[in-house]
Amino acid sequence: MVQTPAKPETETLLLGFPKTLKLHVTQEQFATLAASNRELQLERTAQGELIVNPPTGWETGERNRSIIGQLDRWYDENGSLGKAFDSSTGFILPNGATRSPDACWISQERWDTLTEEQRGTFANICPDFVVELRSQSDTLKSLQEKMQEYLDNGAKMGWLIDPQNRIVEVYRVGLNVERLSNPTELSGEEVLPGFVLNLQRVWG
After folding, report:
1. Rounded to a whole number, what is the largest CA-CA distance in the chain?
2. What 3 state SS string does the chain have?
3. CA-CA distance, 87 to 104, in Å (whole number)?
4. Is residue 71 a contact partner of residue 58, using CB atoms and an 8 Å limit?
5. Mean pLDDT, the chain, as a whole number?
């Protein structure tokens, strides 16, 4: 007797859909999708919309490596102050969105308040400090909205770095956005004491 092989419970198919089509997922569905697609950088808005970010080009990758590398060197000397994370790390913000900044940092004091459950795959916390690096595929408006979302959910400071125009927007709690044209460096101020980002290495 010849037995027919059982069909797999799931099959991998390629699905193309226009940008105008919005897919909505729950937090549980998002976690399952992220676990099954580790090569993709997925995000979820507060309304549940799934965002699939394409792989970055080499220029953006090189710039982001410089930013994370410089932050990491500061972290090596100031590790007791908190935790630093790269662009592959997702966080569930208080508004329900799951976001992955290009680089970020959380104070040890705030991290220690999280329970083991809250430190799950995606920690339930908004970083104190965030960096978003604009790539060719990013619209400035979408990144500005994301930066404001970080502030609204607990971030103390953020940098929106736009290499295309050599402009940096600095976001701080309770203050207007500061727009810097072709700066050579950025200070971590009181949020990241002693950290200075050398932008000459980022601009390229």
Report:
1. 76
2. CCCCCCCCCCCCCCCCCCCCCCCECCHHHHHHHHHHCCCCEEEECCCCEEEEECCCCHHHHHHHHHHHHHHHHHHHHCHHHEEEEECCCCEECCCCCEECCCEEEEEHHHHCCCCCCCCCCCECCCCCEEEEECCCCCCHHHHHHHHHHHHHCCCCEEEEEECCCCEEEEEECCCCCEEEECCCEEECCCCCCCCEEECHHHHC
3. 8
4. no
5. 90
User: Can you read off the two tokens belonging to residue 57?
Assistant: 């080009």
Q: Which of 149, 146, 170 is nearest to 158 (CA)?
A: 170
Distance (Å, rounded) from C-alpha 152 to C-alpha 119? 21
What pTM was computed for the model? 0.86
**Residues counted in the chain:** 204
Q: What are phi and psi for residue 199, nearest 5 degrees? A: -80, -15
Find all residues with CB under 8 Å of 100, minimum gap 6, and list them.
Answer: 41, 42, 43, 53, 87, 88, 89, 90, 91
> At 11, is the pLDDT very low, low, confident or very high (cuts 50, 70, 90)?
low
Binned at pLDDT 50, 70 and 90, residue 86 comes out as very high
Q: Tokens representing 117?
A: 């459950």
Domain with residues 57-203, CATH architecture? Alpha-Beta Complex (3.90)
Burial call 22-54: b when 16+ CB within 10 Å, e when fewer: eeebeeeebbebbeeeeeebbbbbeebebbeee
CA gap 65, 11 in Å, rounded = 35
